[in-house]
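Z., the sequence and structure:
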Amino acid sequence: MTTMVIAFLALFASTEVVAVPGCLQYEPATVSLRGELTVEVFPGPPNFQDLKRGDQPEHVWVLTLPKPVCVSAQPSDELYRAVPSVTRVQVGFDDVDKYKSYDSLLGHKVVVTGRLYPAHTVHHRTDVLLTIESIKRSGRA
């Protein structure tokens, strides 16, 4: 009996985590999210702590979701950890010039399609971020 329990535990210890049904996947998967797009201002360089003490403002686009979603871990990289409840996602373009083309969507409900990745720098203000591949106005969130 003990051998069987040890074998059972060893099997699960060596098995990679699989995607949780109903949860979103990190890149390279593409996801679509609905929500309200806003700009939030955070303290930036040099100390990333306080705008009143001289830190430069960083303007960040944030998508606020109408209800929480979960994101599955990516077993091949511990940086890509599971996030059980995501309600805000920092979104952005690879091309900085695109922000001006879409700033009319700020303050509106939108559908954003892109690839999720985890926060890993001081400039990342939510646990999960999304690189925008497409964005359009939506009639609902």
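The chain has one domain: 19-137. Residues 1-17 have pLDDT under 50 and may be disordered.

Let me know what you think.
H.
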